[in-house]
TrEMBL record:
PROSITE patterns: PIWI
SMART domains for the chain: Piwi
PANTHER family hit by this protein: EUKARYOTIC TRANSLATION INITIATION FACTOR 2C (PTHR22891)
Name the UniProt record assigns to this protein: Piwi-like protein 3
Every Piwi domain range: 56-278
Native organism: Saguinus oedipus
Domain of life: Eukaryota
């Protein structure tokens, strides 16, 4: 795969939770690029606990997983995950739109423990869709609409300008997790927050369905899209083709998924923070896909 690695520094610890987390804290430092954890079994220290104590991207695997007959395929997959968690790109697609930022927004609600809701915001930060910026917004329990989108959007545009020579020409937002009854509230609240960066609102709203993934068994439920805010003026056909292209850009699967990659990245981010960390991730991780 052309990935060059130095020999890893290997540390062995017992299965006790305190000794395990203390070792992770001790060896987490700015010069460290990746922590790879190999466990004997799934019992004991949970992977989510590992992620909660480190500020460095890490990969966790159960020992018997890499001892299977298809170990070469599994290890290749692990190497790909480690690569993109450290900022590398695995593939890209041609979208036929120039200098466009794509944003995905989704929320996680802990309905069991009634913890605060977590909104995940993920934005592409280069024209090739290979670099991403992420940020979490911690909200009241059960709250779906996001209140700090101006802050998130400004930070994402700052990172874009670091990677590119000028601002993006356009911004396309994919919002997941809202029902048809919330579309007007979404338009009034979230779209209004980002109106500083957008000039006018298009009255031509429309919706469409796409089946982006292929399955070998059963049937696929189409994904329903509503275009509710448009200042670019792309044709419906172009929006549908663009959406389909983005379904190929999820770096945890060499194929297509049912929603555009930024939406699913936002879902993974919000779920990890809401389920395991319960606080905003360290800012040093904001340009890495650490939540895959």
């Amino acid at each position: 795969m052309g990935i060059t690695m130095r020999r890893a520094h290997t540390i062995q610890v017992d299965g006790h939770a305190d000794s395990y987390t203390n070792i992770l804290r001790k060896y987490t430092r700015s010069a460290l690029q990746m922590i790879h954890v190999t466990r004997i079994s799934k019992t004991g220290i949970r992977q989510e606990q590992n992620k909660a104590v480190v500020l460095t991207p890490h990969q966790c695997v159960v020992k018997r997983t890499i001892e299977k007959a298809q170990a070469k395929t599994i290890i290749t997959k692990i190497a790909q995950q480690m690569n993109c968690k450290m900022g590398g790109a695995l593939w890209k697609v041609e979208t036929n739109v120039q200098r466009t930022m794509f944003i995905g927004i989704d929320c996680f609600h802990d309905i069991v423990n009634r913890q605060k809701s977590i909104a995940g915001f993920v934005a592409s930060t280069n024209a090739e869709l290979t670099k991403w910026y992420s940020q979490c917004v911690i909200q009241a329990t059960g709250e779906e609409l996001v209140n700090e989108l101006q802050t998130c959007l400004k930070a994402a545009l700052d990172v874009w300008c670091e990677n590119e020579s000028s601002m993006p020409r356009s911004i396309i937002v994919y919002r997941d997790g809202v029902g048809d009854g919330q579309l007007q509230a979404l338009l009034d609240q979230e779209a209004k927050q980002m109106s500083t960066y957008l000039k006018t609102i298009s009255p031509n709203k429309y919706d469409f369905f796409i089946v982006s993934q292929s399955v070998k068994e059963g049937t696929v439920t189409p994904t329903h899209y509503n275009v509710i805010y448009d200042t670019i003026g792309l044709s419906p056909d172009r929006v549908q083709r663009l959406t389909y292209c983005l379904c190929h850009m999820y770096y945890n699967l060499p194929g297509t998924i049912r929603v555009p990659a930024p939406c699913h990245y936002a879902h993974k981010l919000a779920y990890l923070v809401g389920q395991s960390i319960h606080e905003k991730p360290n800012r040093s991780l904001s340009t890495l896909l650490f939540y895959l």
